[in-house]
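Exercise 7. Predict the joint structure of the components listed below.
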Amino acid sequence: MSRNWEEDNQNPGLKVLLGSAEEAGEKYVFARKQQLLHMFLRLQLDMDGEELTEQETALYDRQIRVWGADAQRRLSKSHILVSGLKGTVVEFCKNIVLAGVGSVTLNDDRLVTEELLSANFLVPPDENVYSGKSLAELCCDSLTDFNPMVRVSVEKGEVSKFSADFFDKFDVVVISSCSLSTKQSINEKCRKSLKRIAFYTVDCRDSCGEIFVDLQNYIYTKKKNDEAVECLLEYSSFEVLEYSTEDNLLQTSIVLSDEKYGARENEMKEVCFVENRRSCLTSTQLGNLMYRNRAQPYIHWEAVSVPWRSLPRRVSKLYLAMRVIEKFEELEGRIPGETSAADLPNVQKLRKELCEAQSLDESQIPDSLLERLLEGRREFPPVCAVIGGILGQEVIKAISGKGDPLKNFFFFDAMDGKGIIEDIFRQKS
Amino acid sequence: MASEQQLSAIKGAKVLMVGAGGIGCELLKTLALSGFKDVHIIDMDTIEVSNLNRQFLFRQSHVGQSKAKVARDAVLKFRPNISITPYHANVKDPEFNVDFFKQFNVVLNGLDNLDARRHVNRLCLAAGVPLVESGTTGFLGQVTVHVKGRTECYECQPKPAPKTYPVCTITSTPSKFVHCIVWAKDLLFAKLFGDKNQDNDLNVRASDASSSSQQTEDVFERKNDEDIEQYGRRIFDHVFGYNIELALSNEDTWKNRNRPRPIYSKDVIPVEPVGQNGNQAKNLVAGNPLSISAMASVGLKNPQDLWSLKENSAIFLEALKLFFSKREKEIGNLTFDKDDQLAVEFVTAAANIRASSFGIPLHSLFEAKGIAGNIVHAVATTNAIIAGLIVIEAIKVLQNDVKNYRMTYCLEHPSRKMLLMPVEPFEPNKSCYVCSETPLTLEVNTNGSKLKDFVDKIVKAKLGMNLPLIMHGSSLLYEVGDDLEEDEVANYAANLEKVLSELPSPVIGGTILTVEDLQQELKCSINVKHREEFDEEKEPDGMVLSGWTQPLAVEKNGKGSTDNGASTSRVSEATSLVTEEDEELQIIPTQSGKKRKLSDISSAASSDALSFRNEAKVKRKAEEADNNNDVVMLDGGSSENSKKKREQ
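Solution:
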């Protein structure tokens, strides 16, 4: 662990902080307990888990050689919700269905149009086939065919209206083509769940793509010098509104953390606490882990509202440009992606306001990039394949608990060919 | 979305795809979605069950059918109005000649072996068609662009090649499990079930000159009326008992090694009275010979379990019995096939018994199958990503957008924050014998080696020629082709058996040979140097070719396998270099496995200068990437991050 709870406890500022945050703190401790309990149960399950069938071993032979039989068993027990079925998400669905997850639930009530199918290989572009059916229904039929061992089903309705209980059924939630506020609220529902739900958003515009990941507090194993090592990562949410209102709390905590540990504190936290022996953790050890984390939830939990001045020094321009467009769509009440080059002047205006407020040089978000993102309503299939592939890989990692997951944004731009990971969290106001 | 300019380049393009497997399925899909209208696809393979986890155009019901044809039909379902021409054929077939290649605007490779890649590279060079090459292994992958005269060709840099092992390591002194697998598969399995006329090193070392070859033949031959059980035990005792005893008698061998332990079947599995084996019934069901299983009749289920010596011995005897009772007709013609359950069981058991004799850790059937079958780790996601990157490069190539060509590496661990890392392509290697006309030198004992040795070990194995023609001045020494006259064929066959210096036009020190492949349109000159002696272990070919980029040796075990072409070593070379460049970012330690490979590169590359040239280049490229303008530099230095910057 990078911080010592006993030391923290002697700090008067922190005592005040904890006092005033008693309720929230308790709630957090409770949530953590549930998470850890769930983790334990999951481990238990893994140990008692039945063996793969002969059929599974034959079908998954090549990938078991990559991630092992344990990971394959976990995959086969996982449940995934996918909302918004554009080309990138269809690619993703193909990847996880092939990998052999337990179930995939598709949500997209849109009726199919030629444009929606431009990067979709699940549905033939034939009106006689698709007319009158929703995108989710059509994709479901094809995906079922890919791997009979995966249950694929459709959930109708508006994803933003689904209750928190609904999300409890899933281990992974992937949403796309939805507004900023929908992203926020679903992320929050996932965070509030008693079980740990991995949350992802994905968007492609023109030849650019963005993935956001929130695994909350995530424990996984990775190979280091040929030994399996346990690691812990703490993620920021996309933007959890509940916490951002507690300004005082936030400030106090940040000051504390800055004084004692410096702003570098929120680098990727990687805690290798028990080597190769997850099951050896006693409940006391788990308790300590939980306890020590207690003071941290208020520090950096928002990934999209991070003040730009405190961003990593060379943050991808795509991150900034996507935030401007997202904000623009939100303010204008647009359906996500329903933009065109004609919006450029207004978007430029918004950029100016945002940059001024954040004291950032406007040139950091170039016109040419904004224009591409505004115009690029149709997806570029090679980019869908790349982003859908990366997302598939990440979800497989998160379910199997093996390998470094990406934290917490991924950007790809076919123009320069770079696939970049950005770790963005609230740092300092 | 693609721009108008890109779209018109896409629509007018005629594309050749080689390979319809893991990468191929993804690639064909992405090409179709991207608007390509005319795609030709060559693949000689048929569909297998273990393909279905990633080759998503195929279903269970397609098992056994042509990959190229099924892939075409599957893609036409969602893009009915494009033209896809499938060829269920080997890309090395003569019909795919330079003229065939010339009709395409770009060639896209999704291949799984070095041999075919080199062949396609040469045809692309000869036809002047750009090549986009790719490969994946597990989470790693790469896409490279090869345009004649502009970038390096596929063969400008040394490539990993499957490792071969010295004969005596396999026959007498194994130290790794893979040695036991090679012994079980290439020697024992081949001896018992394969072509009896093939040369086989089994026993050669162990019994040396003392026993005649006739005697060894007798040992492995089943005598008339010999009980199968008895025969199995006799083979067992011979290879795991007697041969080990014999080897032990050679004290010199064991001075610095652990002495192996002879194992006899009766000590592991007591002899049962005849006719009391009740397990036989299970296998009486007739069916697919490939599904007959010794594991099943012995009562073992999980291929991931480690078997004890006793279990391995039981499987060994049972598998042998099953071969002779259920698959007798095939004996004499069998070659090891990773999809042949009984063959895998036999090889696993034999390798494990040998391993336990030599104190080498045992392995499960699943692991042994991976090693014996040279199975490549493969997942759908990496293939999908790589296919996307191939199409992006292909579109640049079609637009002749030379300055934006990139080699892209797909990494498992980020390097300088990148999971997908583009690097500018290298310039052609001026000493590449494939794309430059650099002469080669061959050291050979011209009074000892036959023309046949030269053809097999150099022209085919090293130069990768398919239909070679060998000339000394104006006289033809050797030629292959369908259109030869009978007397020519006889003449060349006679030449093959002749020692070089005794050929009609003698090849001696100082001779310059011209070797040409008419299909690949590749021609090289070889300066012959006479040399009497060769080191049997270090120079097993009995001849040495130089001025030729030596393939890197890669361990033939599952974990290091790069047969699918992702040159992990080069990826790690690039990443470890660029990571060192950047002090600010978290340095991802290269795994020990990769480091080993990195050092392999510098030691194994035939020319050190060559690899240095590359390292320096990668560094330079990385710096350029650092300085370009697509990242934001926030002014003000408000954060700790900027203080750490090496500005002063």
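Discussion. Chain B touches chain A through 77 residues (CB under 8 Å).
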